[in-house]
From TrEMBL:
The active site is at K73. It is an enzyme of class 1 (oxidoreductase). HAMAP family: Shikimate_DH_AroE. It comes from Candidatus Enterococcus murrayae. It catalyses: shikimate + NADP(+) = 3-dehydroshikimate + NADPH + H(+). GO terms for molecular function: shikimate 3-dehydrogenase (NADP+) activity. The gene is aroE. This is Shikimate dehydrogenase (NADP(+)). Belongs to the shikimate dehydrogenase family. Residues 14-96 form the Shikimate dehydrogenase substrate binding N-terminal domain. Residues 260-289 form the SDH C-terminal domain. NADP(+) binds at G135, A136, G137, G138, A139, V236, G260. Homodimer. Its EC number is 1.1.1.25.
Amino acid sequence: MTERLTGHTLLISLIATPIRHSMSPTMHNEAFAKLGLDYAYLAFEVGNEELKDTIQGIRALGIRGSNVSMPNKQAIIPYLDEVSPEATLIGAVNTVTNIDGKGHLVGYNTDGIGAMEALKDEGIGVKDQIITLTGAGGAGTAIAIQAAFDGAKELRIFNIDDTVFSNAKETARKINENTACQATVTDLADQKAFKKSISESNIYIDATGVGMKPLEDISLINDSTLIRPDLVVFDVVYSPRETKLLKFAKKHGAKKAINGLGMMLYQGAAAFKLFTGEDMPVSYIKELLFKV
Ligand code: NAD
């Protein structure tokens, strides 16, 4: 036990399964220590079956907030007292606050904010931009909704014809109804449309997880003529740090080839602000955890 833990220490939890690999406990605890905040952040193996009891526990123990990951991001919603507008549209929550430990639980989703902040960190804004996005699962939906809220001009979503395809359609419908952004969905099998879309886009985002094990030898772009010096390529994967897509984009001279580390850092920073009201010392955490 470190010296800084006392009888007054406030607890923040992370509830998901599997979760032991997560960088979030280290990220938040290092940030608490750096700022001298009397909080501790612990991960708990919690699946859907334990969720109801866990929520009761959060309320009973006055746990001040929680991050939520798979498989609980959607399942937690019915147990909350309030859900933020963006989390409602995304249909998933990754952060819950319990201000002053009074048991009023509010759900947020900081994944999309994390992605937008990661792009900003590289000098890239989404306002008025045309974005091609592959993947409309948890990460893709959060990115699509946030980019639309942040003023993207067009979001061209491409998804394989699997169970997520209908979610992609639903996400596009919500964006078209609630924002000025124009969203479309196309089957990724239509490679002609996919290539045309990328050739007209400012930013290409891959939110599929292709490029991560066991798909580390796959990239959804293999045609070097699609990589232009004014195209930003962003892959949400951070392990490996450089996916096949990012290597390809770099090799063929893309404007930027950005991995998912920044998204992961900034979704955490946005959650940290909601938990504590303080700004996470991101430069310090970046250097400590990511050696950048
Ligand atoms: P998900 O299962 O909800 O969605 C996966 C998406 O990829 C779906 O749209 C699916 O149709 C598509 N897909 C799956 N296999 C494909 C293939 N072979 N070709 C093309 N499309 C395919 O998953 P998720 O929770 O959205 O996570 C996706 C990735 O995002 C994972 O690698 C995850 O680690 C990463 N992620 C990163 C961060 C971050 O902070 N950097 C945050 C959340 C998720």
